[in-house]
């Protein structure tokens, strides 16, 4: 494991490499931020958002938390969404989970983890919502991976239920929500659901416009 001083050295090497490839990169980057994508992903250190999709700094706006949740009381996540949608005018929101997620695994365990219990309770509710289907999966690993998928799908719905997104559609703003999942074992992204790009795809009970 590198010491902190080595991280500074790595940073200088990285910056010099970028400048060698494009001498104007950092001066251009410092003058504007105009990403078209908002990535809502897991905090897991093995899931580096920019690298997975091959984008450079400035091209992807990122919010990460344990198990990539979008909770209606999480002002951190909602503030990121509002800034991204209303000010940066992103065109795509990607909720991206990953197989083998530790947060999802904690939600499935019958034990206490401290403060984390309050956070993953949202995932436990996803499990209970799909209890019958989950009970049909006998393999623990496959059951975990399926809940990782269902969690992403649930969070996509939560994004679409926000006033932030629905008001953007009302304004005629181009905005599409995606549900993706990443395989740490092979590095491949998978598209889980049909993208949501308008209010007509939202359950009427959650429409606010």
What does this structure look like?
- The protein is an alpha/beta fold and 209 residues long.
- It is 47% helix and 14% strand.
- It contains nine helices and five strands; from the N terminus they run ααβαβαβαααααββ.
- It has a five-stranded mixed β-sheet.
- 26% of the residues are buried.
Summarize the structure.
By secondary structure, this protein is of the alpha/beta class. The protein is built from nine helices and five strands; from the N terminus they run ααβαβαβαααααββ.
Give short descriptive properties of this protein.
47% helix; 209 residues; five-stranded mixed β-sheet; alpha/beta
* Helix and strand run: HHEHEHEHHHHHEE
**Which of globular, elongated, flat, extended, rod-shaped describes the shape?**
globular
Number of strands: 5
Task: Give the terminus-to-terminus CA distance.
Answer: 51 Å
Fraction of helical residues: 40-55%
Strand order of the largest sheet: 2-1-3-4-5
The overall pLDDT average reads 95
SSE topology sketch:
Elements lengths: L3 H18 L3 H7 L5 E6 L6 H5 L7 E5 L9 H13 L4 E7 L3 H7 L7 H14 L1 H5 L4 H21 L2 H8 L5 E8 L4 E4 L18
Parallel strand pairs: 1-2, 1-3, 3-4
Antiparallel strand pairs: 4-5
Helix pairs in contact: 5-6
């Amino acid at each position: 494991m590198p010491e902190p001083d080595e991280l500074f050295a790595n940073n200088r090497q990285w910056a010099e490499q970028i400048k060698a490839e494009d001498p104007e990169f950092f001066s251009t980057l410092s003058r504007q931020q105009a990403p078209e994508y908002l990535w809502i992903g897991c905090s897991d250190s093995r899931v580096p958002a920019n690298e997975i999709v091959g984008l450079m700094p400035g091209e992807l706006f990122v919010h990460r938390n344990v198990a990539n949740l979008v909770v209606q009381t999480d002002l951190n996540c909602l503030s990121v969404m509002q800034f991204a949608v209303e000010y940066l005018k992103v065109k795509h929101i990607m909720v991206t989970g990953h197989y083998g997620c530790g947060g999802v695994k904690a939600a499935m365990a019958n034990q206490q983890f401290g403060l984390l219990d309050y956070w993953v309770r949202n995932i436990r509710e996803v499990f209970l919502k799909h209890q019958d289907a989950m009970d049909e999966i006998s393999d623990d690993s496959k059951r975990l991976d399926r809940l990782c998928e269902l969690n992403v799908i649930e969070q996509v719905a939560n994004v679409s239920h926000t006033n932030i997104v629905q008001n953007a559609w009302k304004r005629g703003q181009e905005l599409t929500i995606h549900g993706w999942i990443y395989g740490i074992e092979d590095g491949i992204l998978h598209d889980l659901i049909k993208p949501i790009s308008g209010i007509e795809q939202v359950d009427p009970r959650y429409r606010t416009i």
